[in-house]
Amino acid sequence: MYAARPPRPTVTLPSRECVPCDKTPRRTGWYHLLVARVLLVDAGELSRRALHRVLDSGGHVVEATADAAGANASLESRDFDLALVSDDVEGGGLEFLVRLRDRRPKVMRMLLVSPAKREAAIVAVSTGLAHRSLARPFQAEALDREIGVLLEMAEHIRQAVSSQPERESAERLFRECLDGQRLALARQPIVSVRDSELCAYELLLRSRHPVLRGPLEILDAVERCDRVADLGRAVNRLAAGQIAALPASVAVFVNTHPAQFADDQVLATFEPLLPFASRVVLEITERAPLSDFHGAEQALRDLTALGFRMAVDDIGSGYNSLAVLAELQPAYIKADMSIVRRVHEDPRKQRLIHLLGSFASATGAELIAEGVESVEELEAVARYGAHLVQGFHIGKPLVEWDD
Predict the structure, then answer these.
(1) How many CB atoms within 10 Å of residue 180?
(2) Which of 119, 97, 98 is nearest to 110 (CA)?
(3) Could you report the per-residue pLDDT of 32-78, keeping only the tens digit for each?
(4) N or C: which end of the chain has fewer CB within 10 A?
């Protein structure tokens, strides 16, 4: 579930209310060796940066946002292990925790509160709104310790639900999705930076099932009951139906789990898309590294020979490191939204966009900036080398249900 993390250096947390810590954090227990995918939601720019540094120094993969709206957008397309939420975020920290608990119950939740609201934090934990709370001021050692407790809790929960009854339950829920026609694909536009013309749509999985309410819940279920290939076939059938109705000049990005490339019947899995192969881009998601799946490399070569193109999703986050670019030679590189978020204010992110854009151009690929949510972000990614853009500022995902 988690990856090993490197030894952590001495760190301090010079946030607006935190007391500096001059000592190396003292960590005990196995959990200090783990890395988590962390969603950080904090309205204070200085404290957010300080927390980001502390988490990053521990090897965690962090996506930071200042408000509930940004956090909700992150949840639409990303899987997290842990959320750190300040009580003073715009849009309501407690209100966001309610939505997080309902939409992503497996994400461990920590509430960061001001000293005056410690009693509210106790209520939040006792009612299950948050798993833990941490009151300011706190030192880096305290944050490290609390994260360790949450990761340990998460691991115990994961082990508890991986039993055979849970597998059978996941199988039943997934069958309900398929048999009840409760799955659909939303279209989100991808446009050219040069002339703002529509170039492609990404097809995003949506669900009307009362339990498997989103793509992450569905992926968790199919992984648990070993039905990834069946989900892939269902998605490809839905995608083929949409492609047939779109203009021939428009490409379509179809999200593809790495395990689909290891299926014995991999070509049959993509058979519905074969008539449209030249227009289909298989977007490889970050659920697991491709190297985990025997035969995946040969399957990718076979699919490329049939006319399919490849895109590497979420570069800059998770498993999709720069090494994947050399292995896959993709036609598209998608810069993770954590790089794009507020890129106009961060010279380091600007340099990274420039480097990715230069690499893409040099290898015959195109760089897509994901998660563009403002005109400032759009202008920045265009200036520093993105070829295509996608995000709420360009267009929100739209879904049409067959009723």
Answers:
(1) 10
(2) 97
(3) 446 788 999 988 888 888 898 888 887 788 899 888 888 888 887 77
(4) C
Pairing of strands 132-135, 108-113: parallel
Picking from 68, 132, 128, 125, the residue whose alpha carbon sits closest to that of residue 101 is 128
Dihedral of the alpha carbons of 83, 90, 204, 325, in degrees to the nearest 10: -60
Would you mind telling me the total number of residues written for the chain in this entry? Answer: 403
Q: Three-state DSSP class for 81? A: coil
Q: What do you get for the CA distance between the two ends of the chain, in Å?
A: 38
Q: Are 43 and 15 in contact (CB under 8 A)?
A: no
Residue 364 zone, left/alpha/beta (φ > 0; ψ -120 to 50; rest) = left
Locus of tokens 């689909």: 260
CA pair distance 150, 60, nearest whole angstrom: 14
Distance separating alpha carbons of residues 391 and 334, to the nearest angstrom: 12
- CA–CA separation, 42 and 340 (whole Å): 18
pLDDT, tens digit, 9 for 90 and up, residues 167-215? 788 889 999 998 878 899 999 999 999 999 999 999 999 988 888 888 8
Q: Are 329 and 363 in contact (CB under 8 A)?
A: yes
Q: CB within 8 A of 81, min separation 6: which ones? A: 1, 2, 36, 37, 38, 107, 108, 151, 154
Residue in the block written with tokens 């192969």: 277
Evaluate if pTM is beyond 0.85: no
Q: Considering only the C-alpha atoms of the chain, give the largest distance between any 2 of them, rounded to a whole number of Å.
A: 63
**Is-contact 262 296, C-beta < 8 A?**
yes
Please tell me the distance from the alpha carbon of residue 259 to that of residue 23, in angstroms, as a whole number: 44
Domain architecture of the chain: domains with CATH: 3-161 (3.40.50.2300), 164-389 (3.20.20.450)
From the list 126, 82, 120, 88, the residue with the least C-alpha distance to 104 is 82
